[in-house]
Design goal:
The chain folds into three domains: about 1-90, Alpha-Beta Plaits (2-Layer Sandwich); about 105-220, Rhodanese-like domain (Oxidized Rhodanese, domain 1); about 240-290, no CATH class. It has helices at about 15-30, 50-65, 115-120, 135-140, 155-160, 175-185, 200-205, 250, 270-290, and strands at about 1-10, 35-40, 40-50, 70-80, 85-90, 110, 125-130, 140, 170, 195, 215, 220, 225, 235-240, 245. By secondary structure, the protein is α/β, with parallel strands linked by helices. The strands form five sheets. The chain has a five-stranded mixed sheet with strand order 4-1-3-2-5, covered by helices on one side. Strands 6-10-9-7 form a four-stranded parallel sheet. Strands 8-11 form a two-stranded antiparallel sheet. It is built from nine helices and 15 strands. Helix 1 packs antiparallel against helix 2.
Length: about 300
């Protein structure tokens, strides 16, 4: 059994290159995999490993970066290691929106899942899904709207069009994208902006299905693909052609070909690309028959 922890922290980080090497060396030694993004404004990460190794790693991350605690964290479990390797990246921002964020310019505007349910039931509340369109398609809250943008840097243009007097309930996977967006709205004069504490993952972990206002599954950026209530692994697969989640319904389409294409990308791929993907899938199938794991095969 593997434990997965998603977390972020907004606090000034110095010596990024040095800290990157320290983190990499320790975490690789502890067999930790996942993605860590560090920037001058803070950290955003999702990592996975065995329980004891992960606990030691979290303590080490806090010590290296001088964090007492994270701003938010979501813990879940998986029967398989959901990441192929460890990646520690240095970025200008942990979430690219064009503004730097610190603990000083953040606002306490979080709603726990119970209060969230009550707030979004109000017919005057604008429920804003701040994720990408393909994530929204997999699952979202009832009556939510999505900006339909694929680059978070374009998000401010959409936010500028919103009604400043209307109450806004904003949510994303783990909460960090909303942290940036809510500060942007505050600077623009919005007063009634609230975000789901801990994001969708916290909601799905704490709210029973019978009380839930969530419909569908939640896309996660690892080999689980999606999760459902209780953060159990969902039903979606990943298309090898476009790297987007695909449902069992998508697989019944004539445009679906294992390892090659799905209804989302079939008409966009060239014949050359499809042939290349078919060759890749053939190698995967041969590796399976030989009882081996191909480099492109999903790891369980």
């Amino acid at each position: 059994m593997f434990e997965i922890l998603g977390f972020y922290k907004f606090k000034k980080i110095k010596f990024l290159k040095k800290n990157k090497l320290l983190l990499q060396n320790f975490l690789i030694n502890k067999n930790i995999r996942g993605t860590i993004i560090i920037a001058n404004e803070g950290l955003n990460a999702t990592i996975s490993g065995k329980v004891d190794d992960l606990k030691l790693s979290i303590d080490k991350i806090k010590k290296i970066l001088d964090f007492k605690k994270f701003d938010s964290e979501n813990k879940s479990k998986s029967k398989f290691q959901p990441f192929y390797k460890l990646k520690v990246k240095i970025k200008k921002e942990v979430v690219p929106i064009g503004l730097s964020l610190t603990s000083k310019n953040r606002k306490d505007n979080y709603l726990d899942p119970k209060k969230w349910n009550k707030f979004i039931k109000n017919k005057n509340t604008l429920i804003l899904d701040s994720r990408k369109p393909f994530e929204y398609k997999v699952g979202t809250f009832k009556k939510s709207i999505n900006p339909d943008i694929n680059n978070f840097r374009e998000f401010p243009k959409y936010l500028n069009k919103l009604n400043k007097k209307k109450p806004i309930a904003m949510f994303c996977t783990g909460g960090i994208r909303c942290e940036k967006a809510s500060v942007f709205l505050k600077r623009k004069g919005f007063k009634n902006v609230y975000q789901l504490k801990g994001g969708i993952l916290n909601y799905l972990k704490k709210v029973n299905i019978k009380d839930s206002l969530w419909k569908g599954e939640c896309f996660v950026f690892d080999n689980r693909i999606t999760v459902k209530h209780g953060l159990i692994v969902g039903t979606y697969s990943m298309c090898s052609g476009c790297r987007k989640p695909i449902s069992s319904k998508d697989k019944k389409s004539q445009k679906y070909e294992e390892g090659v294409s799905c209804p989302n990308c079939h008409d966009k791929l060239t014949n050359t690309q499809k042939e290349r993907f078919r060759m890749r899938q053939k190698q995967i199938n041969l590796a399976k028959e030989a009882g081996k794991r191909h480099i492109f095969q999903k790891e369980y």
